[in-house]
Amino acid sequence: MTLNELIERVCASGALPVLDGEGVAEFLSQQEFGALCFFNDPKLYPENFDLAVVLPELLKGFPNLRAAVAAPAQAAALARDYGVAVYPALVLFKDGEPRDVVARIQAWSEYRERIGRLFL
Fold first, then answer.
1. What SS3 state is found at 38?
2. Over the stretch 45-102, which tens digit does the pLDDT of each residue have?
3. Domains in the chain, ordered, with CATH?
């Protein structure tokens, strides 16, 4: 599976937009609690598939959290802007400001703890 196919599958429901730099800024400015998901080449980063499964479940578990996926063409530049050094990654935002970077796949408890901190 290619990166584009993975992203298409993750976003198939229409609940997750794929955003470029300008779209990311606009999206995050409209969310109290946001997450920006970074995927990279699935052949190099097989954990992409795990995050693709976990992300919709996180959104169910945190109904106030809104998420988007960084567009592949702009992902490298956005990753630098938000301190992403390892893929896949989930950058967590509160009121449009980055608060945490969750790199690679994590245990459910780790996601719950780190996302839960946004709501404090």
1. strand
2. 999 999 999 999 999 999 999 999 999 999 999 999 999 999 999 999 999 999 999 9
3. 3-112 (3.40.30.10)
Residue 105 makes CB contacts below 8 A (sequence gap 6+) with 47, 50, 51, 54, 88
- Look at residue 8 in the predicted model and tell me its pLDDT: 87
SS3 41: coil
C-alpha of 1 from chain center: 19
Measured over the CA atoms of residue 89, residue 72, residue 61 and residue 95, the dihedral's sign is positive
Q: For residues 49-77, b (16+ Cβ closer than 10 Å) or e, as one string? A: bebbebbeebbeebeebbbbbbbbebbee
| Encoded tokens for 78 | 């956005």
Average pLDDT over residues 2-22: 87
Q: What are phi and psi of 67, to 5 degrees?
A: -130, 160
